[in-house]
UniProtKB/TrEMBL annotation:
<dbReference type="Pfam" id="PF00117">
    <property type="entry name" value="GATase"/>
</dbReference>
<feature type="domain" description="Tyrosinase copper-binding">
    <location>
        <begin position="27"/>
        <end position="38"/>
    </location>
</feature>
<feature type="active site">
    <location>
        <position position="185"/>
    </location>
</feature>
<keyword id="KW-0963">Cytoplasm</keyword>
<dbReference type="GO" id="GO:0005737">
    <property type="term" value="C:cytoplasm"/>
</dbReference>
<protein>
    <recommendedName>
        <fullName>Imidazole glycerol phosphate synthase subunit HisH</fullName>
        <ecNumber>4.3.2.10</ecNumber>
        <ecNumber>3.5.1.2</ecNumber>
    </recommendedName>
</protein>
<dbReference type="GO" id="GO:0004359">
    <property type="term" value="F:glutaminase activity"/>
</dbReference>
<keyword id="KW-0028">Amino-acid biosynthesis</keyword>
<dbReference type="InterPro" id="IPR017926">
    <property type="entry name" value="GATASE"/>
</dbReference>
<keyword id="KW-0378">Hydrolase</keyword>
<keyword id="KW-0315">Glutamine amidotransferase</keyword>
<comment type="function">
    <text>IGPS catalyzes the conversion of PRFAR and glutamine to IGP, AICAR and glutamate. The HisH subunit catalyzes the hydrolysis of glutamine to glutamate and ammonia as part of the synthesis of IGP and AICAR. The resulting ammonia molecule is channeled to the active site of HisF.</text>
</comment>
<dbReference type="GO" id="GO:0000105">
    <property type="term" value="P:L-histidine biosynthetic process"/>
</dbReference>
<dbReference type="InterPro" id="IPR002227">
    <property type="entry name" value="Tyrosinase_Cu-bd"/>
</dbReference>
<comment type="pathway">
    <text>Amino-acid biosynthesis; L-histidine biosynthesis; L-histidine from 5-phospho-alpha-D-ribose 1-diphosphate: step 5/9.</text>
</comment>
<dbReference type="GO" id="GO:0016491">
    <property type="term" value="F:oxidoreductase activity"/>
</dbReference>
<dbReference type="GO" id="GO:0016829">
    <property type="term" value="F:lyase activity"/>
</dbReference>
Length: 207
């Protein structure tokens, strides 16, 4: 039976993610440094804010190793917005290179400012580049809700599931083994976003 943990963060979309899963028929639970991660079948890492500040928070709570151990067990692991960025190798946000969790072979850089307003806020199209269990039953080229100024560029094509564009193309859905990430907010993306979360909740981590 699915038991979904949502990592508690100091800032972010925690309650809206919980509400979206609950609406879809699940009973998610918030988890933190005091929780037993072995009790959960799925882990969601939400996030809003500055990459380095969020990574510092994780280190302060001794959480990176626990997240890495959870992912290494083969259980489905999902990052949302900054949570997706944390899955990568590093970020240059704030003109300082900060190491990520290294679960996905991608790097996070600033979106272009020429002719663009940052942050990128609103609905943008996601083009699927390959099939994946989390995108089943979803049609190509639908819009999802974004709020971000930085985005992942993949070092290799394999992790890329979906691509969007805002000044440049960027990775909007990433997946490597049992780890996936959404740059957009599925919990704010209406029916298509709820379907993504439902697909993740039923996913066994295998592709």
């Amino acid at each position: 039976m699915e038991r979904i943990g949502i990592l508690r963060m100091p800032l972010g979309n925690l309650q809206s993610v919980w509400n979206a899963l609950y609406t879809s028929g699940f009973d998610p639970e918030f988890v933190d440094e005091h929780s037993n991660f072995d009790d959960f079948s799925h882990l969601i890492i939400p996030g809003v804010g500055h990459f380095k500040a969020v990574m510092d928070h994780l280190h302060d709570k001794d959480l990176p190793k626990r997240i890495l151990d959870f992912a290494a067990s083969g259980r489905p692991t999902l990052g949302i917005c900054v949570g997706m960025q944390l899955l990568g190798l590093s970020s240059t946000e704030g003109d300082v290179e900060t190491q990520g969790l290294g679960l996905v072979n991608g790097m996070v850089t600033r979106l272009p400012t020429e002719g663009q307003v940052l942050p990128h806020v609103g609905w943008s199209t996601v083009e699927f580049k390959r099939s994946h269990p989390v995108t089943e039953q979803l049609k190509q080229g639908r819009d999802y809700y974004f709020v971000h100024s930085y985005a992942m560029t993949a070092e290799i094509e394999d992790p890329v599931i979906g691509v969007s564009s805002y000044g440049r193309d960027f990775v909007s859905i990433v997946g490597q083994d049992n780890v996936v990430g959404f740059q957009f907010h599925p919990e704010k993306s209406q029916a298509n976003g709820l379907q993504l979360l439902t697909n993740f909740a039923y996913w066994d981590g295998k592709c």
